[in-house]
Amino acid sequence: MARAIGDLVAEAEAEADANLELRRSWNVAPTSDVPVVLERVLDGAAVRQVHVARWGLVPGWAKDSSVGVRAFNARSETLLEKPTFRDAVLSRRCAVPMEGYYEWQAGPGGTRKPYFVRRADGRLHWFAGLYEWWADPALSAGDPNRWLLSASVITLASPEPESADPLLRRLGELHDRMPLPLAGEDLDAWLAPGTLSATKALEALGCALGNAYAAAAGWIIEPANPAVGNVRHDGPWLLDAEAEPGNETEAVLF
């Protein structure tokens, strides 16, 4: 996320803790910190908030946080079947804002080429996500570092490569999965606080899935720099496929 925290909070129409810090980054790997937007009921009213979470969901029952390494994405088709995600989809839903995301397209001879997917209007993507709070059993109840907030991004099948729409066809050629976009009423329904029944959760998910390809129609796919494959590389030059490595900074947020 290369935007200032104030810009993110304004676009999310949310509140943020005064001490919330988001460092600019153009390259993020699983287990790094990411911003998430969620809603909680405070004094009887739903309040939308921005938090920072570790990318890779750690369910409350996990013995240690290493579970999150394998849970940075959640397939929409099996959310209620997988123990890691099925509790969160009922009561801990969030949106993960991004300015864009990288995807690697496979080529001949095992080659791969990176691309950056962003919105044509320059606004943030809002992708469906799940979040969890996990208590580290090795730390005491009063330790401020005991609780870990983590999150996962929900994905769906990409459009068929034979799609009549050029952009959707390109998305299908790029990769067989894509993050699930949220907009308008779909975003509001997904973030609505409270515990849903499995049926209601599937309804909210189904509406977002039904509108996903329409939302993707406003995206742009551009070549990215192959250096993005190394998380030690960071900077706006990663969006230029021909650029030479620039100043290196640690990647922490997207």
From TrEMBL:
The keyword tRNA-binding does not apply. Its EC number is 3.4.-.-. Belongs to the SOS response-associated peptidase family. It comes from Arthrobacter gandavensis. It comes from the Bacteria. Signal peptide: none annotated. Keywords: Covalent protein-DNA linkage, DNA damage, DNA-binding, Hydrolase, Lyase, Protease. InterPro entries: SRAP, SRAP-like. This is Abasic site processing protein.
